[in-house]
Design a protein that fits this description.
- This protein is mostly helical.
- The protein has 2 domains: 28-95, no CATH class; 108-147.
- The chain contains 6 helices and no strands.
- Helix 3 runs parallel beside helix 5 (93-107).
- The longest helix is centred in the C-terminal third of the chain and has 34 residues, at 113-146.
- The relative contact order is 0.08.
């Protein structure tokens, strides 16, 4: 199919249909939000240590706290609003993964516990868990046989 259009007409059509990218603005938003999530994690670490936990136990408590907060914000519909404005800043590994696991489960909850929640809970987490476990077994076997 050939369009009867000059280069100038095409360029005018193209510029009218495409928006300018706000790359710098988006990068700053992502940096601020991602940094804010990490700052929250550090503040929680200090708080848990102040409460008497060892550094290792406090690290575990921070992970659990961030996962719980992420799932709560996902359930309330606030995580997606934050992600809409912050973009990649919300992809900080622990909170982004918790959101990616919780969102499909929450969305399909009305379909029932097994076919909705149970089936969709592992849409994202399943492959990660599978390949994580597989790599762990391979690394363990190589480590065992390597001495």
């Amino acid at each position: 199919m050939k369009l009867d259009m000059t280069y100038e007409q095409y360029e005018k059509l193209y510029k009218g249909a495409s928006k300018n990218s706000a790359c710098l603005k988006n990068a700053v938003k992502a940096f601020v939000v991602g940094g804010g999530i990490c700052l929250l994690g550090q503040a929680l670490l200090e708080l848990w240590q102040y409460a008497g936990l060892t550094e290792k136990a406090a690290g575990t408590a921070v992970s659990v706290s961030l996962i719980g907060l992420s799932v709560l914000l996902t359930a309330l519909g606030l995580y997606s609003r934050l992600a809409k404005h912050a973009g990649a800043g919300t992809l900080v590994p622990i909170t982004g993964f918790a959101n990616a696991v919780a969102a499909p489960a929450i969305e399909y909850r009305p379909e029932g516990l097994v076919t909705g929640l149970g089936a969709k809970l592992f849409t994202v987490a399943g492959p990660v868990i599978l390949y994580g476990a597989l790599v762990s077994v391979i690394i363990g076997a190589v480590s065992y046989f390597a001495g």
